[in-house]
Structures are given as structure tokens and as C-alpha cells.
Amino acid sequence: AQSVAQPEDQVNVAEGNPLTVKCTYSVSGNPYLFWYVQYPNRGLQFLLKYITGDNLVKGSYGFEAEFNKSQTSFHLKKPSALVSDSALYFCAVRVLGSGNTGKLIFGQGTTLQVKP
Amino acid sequence: DVKVTQSSRYLVKRTGEKVFLECVQDMDHENMFWYRQDPGLGLRLIYFSYDVKMKEKGDIPEGYSVSREKKERFSLILESASTNQTSMYLCASSLRRELFFGSGTQLSVL
User: Fold this and answer.
1) Which of A9, A36, A43 sits opposite B103 (nearest CB)?
2) Mean local confidence (pLDDT), A64-92
């Protein structure tokens, strides 16, 4: 079955330190991978995506993600965390439904807590 | 900027009521989606639509139906609301594989 897993419910990091939010996936074929962020009482906002090409993808707000095909992972990273990065982060993979319509399957989410 | 608007931010309904959740997008996107978000379960796809009057079941369609009479509007219908449908409902539309989300509707069924 096609799926996405975020193994950590919560990640705690001190402001200024590097952060990593983990994501692994299981899909057939080449994966299209995404990261979204959700701030309190808001909808999800797009951060970045991997479709093809360079394994290191740069996105919004200084975030980047590294695609690793052999480990089927797509971890989200940032060199220096800010308190304002505290939010709920979702990893997602695109799969094809009937009629070749794409849909996203989401992981369960990881809460990032950045402490001053 | 793409705008996806959900008509209600908070909604309280009683068990057995018929509930309509409305979603409108302003960017002429073909594809629209309804997800529900529950703590620890992430987002789960209820239904999606790839064209007017076209719909496809997602992963958890039971107890829900949808309507897409116009391209910009995608409605989620709870035929007879139950307490286990208390959740955050998120609508999205898509262009070039990227989803754009509305702010969500927190539905409480009492």
C-alpha cells in the first residue's frame, strides 16, 4: 500500500540550532513529495516539493529537504531554527487515482517546538 | 494569490442533521479535494473532483457525499451527521501538483 510515515509526533529544538523533521514513504514508481506547514487556526501552507532533479530541494522560510531514494526518505531541514517555526508539519506523497488524477496522501504530522 | 474560501470557520450541529460544507476557489483549478484532519491521524482524503459533475471517492467516503455543479465550488455533504464526524474539514484545489488549502471548518456534532 502507498503510504507516508512521520515517525516523530513532536520534535523539540532550541532556537538557533539545526532542525530535522523526518519523513519516509512507500510508493510505486517515482515519487512526487511535498512538505506543508500548518500554523495554529490556519489551513496548510506549501513549503516545498520534490519532483525530479537535484536531491536537495530549497523551499520557503529557509527550509530545505533532502530526497534519498535508497532510504525512501524526504527529511525536512533548516540550518538555524526560529521560535516562529513552531508549527505542525506534514509530509505528503502524490499518487494517481483512477483516470490518472493525482491526489496527495499525508503523513500524520509532526509538531515542531522551537524554544528560545 | 490563489484563494480557497470555506464558508464557515466553526460549525455546531446536532446528530442526524444534514450538513453542508461549502468551498470556493478563485483560480479556475480543475481539481478540488475534501480532507478531514484529526490529531494523530493527519489528513485523510474524503472525496475529490477533477471536473464539474465528476467525483471520485477518497480513502474515507462513508457517511459523506459531494457536489460540484460549478468549477469554482465544491460542496461536502453529511447526509446524517454523527458524533464521529466531529473534525476539522479542509478543502483544497490544485494546479501543477501543488495543493492550495482553505482555512478549514471545525465541525462539532453534538
Assistant:
1) A43
2) 96
Q: What percent of chain A clears pLDDT 90, i.e. is strictly above it? A: 76
Secondary structure (3-state) at A60: helix
Q: Provide the pLDDT for residue A1.
A: 77
pLDDT in tens, B33-68: 999 999 888 999 999 998 898 899 999 999 999 999
Cα B89 to its chain centre, rounded Å, is 6
Q: Of B42, B97, B101, which is closest to A109 when you measure between CB atoms?
A: B42
* Helical ranges in A11-94 per DSSP H: none
B33 interface with A at CB cutoff 8 Å: yes
Q: Residue B32 carries which DSSP code? A: E
Size of interface A-B (CB pairs under 8 A): 62
Question: pLDDT tens across B65-83, in order?
Answer: 999 999 999 999 999 999 9
Q: How far is Cα B100 from Cα B2, in angstroms, rounded to an integer?
A: 7
Neighbours of B35 (CB within 10 A): 28
Contact by Cβ (8 Å): A37, A89: yes
Q: What distance in Å separates the CA atoms of residue B7 and residue A2, rounded to the nearest whole number?
A: 32
Considering only CB atoms, which chain B residues are within 8 Å of A87?
none
Amino acid residing at B82:
S
Contacts of A31 in chain B (CB under 8 A): none
Between CA B106 and CA A89 the distance in angstroms is 19
A51 contact partners, CB below 8 Å, separation of at least 6:
A32, B97
